[in-house]
Amino acid sequence: MKHLLLFAFIGLSLTSCKKELEKLNTTPNEDIDGVIYVGGISELPSTYKIELGTYRSGVDTTESPINHEWSASALVDEGDDATFEWTLNDSKPVNYIGTTTKEWLSRQNKWRIVSTVFIYNYIFDNITNFKLTSRVKFKKSETQKVQSTDFEVIKKDIRNDYLRFDFGMTKDQVKSIAKKEYKTDYYLETLPNVGIVNKAHMFQPNDSFTYFEFENNKLKAITVYQTNIQHYGGFYGSILWYYYPFKYPDTKITFDQAKQRYVLSNSVTWNNAFLKFTLQEKEFQVSSTEKRTYIGLIHEKL
Predict the structure, then answer these.
(1) Residues 177 and 290 in one domain
(2) CA atoms within 13 A on the CB side of 139
(3) Domain tally for the chain?
(4) Each residue of 31-66: pLDDT tens digit?
């Protein structure tokens, strides 16, 4: 009889433990927008690699990206809240370089609170490894969860002809890099040997363009030009100042009333250590059926 009572007690204990485990796991894992939530908290990887590229080209030297975003998020019911605290290498608080957003997820019937920190490149001047820790605290339950990620910084020094482009690249390579570099989905192929992006390096107005020309599916020339006459003076004035100040004092840009566009008094060509530059009036294939003439700055390989 004692043995039967002992087995009964063990059976009741196992059943009780099973129910407690079920109670602890009442919040199932969820995949929301590609983010996995466990117990209502986004899972962060234990390790992560950051690639920091220094790009040196015939026109400038840049770093990409200039900062890195790192986020953690939590799901809470109406009336509840969650706060995040970040530390760098277990000691330095990094709350002050972050943002917090809150959005209602109607499908899950919960609030999603997202905390993001911005890791700036200057942090990597003297380090190649660091640890970033997230601590999330829930208001109602007064529970918290701590997650840490060990980062490895991989530094690369990369030489390109122009920005991230190399002359000789294929059309597919240029198209892929252009969309990423200029952060746009606009890439128009007006001819089999021409591609256009609706942005231009250094000159930010939305009516500036980058014109890629190919020969035998190899990148041959890159030209930047502007279409809005209201911006021409500043746009090409910047070119004249940035590339060769005082070198060509007789080069003038004026507005031609008859043509209703800006014209260049004379074309000029010059070189630096890597590229050949030509500032001239040029006919651009702006669509498959239309050509227009603008002042363009052409970049070619020496």
Answers:
(1) yes
(2) 10
(3) 2
(4) 888 889 998 999 999 999 988 888 888 877 877 766
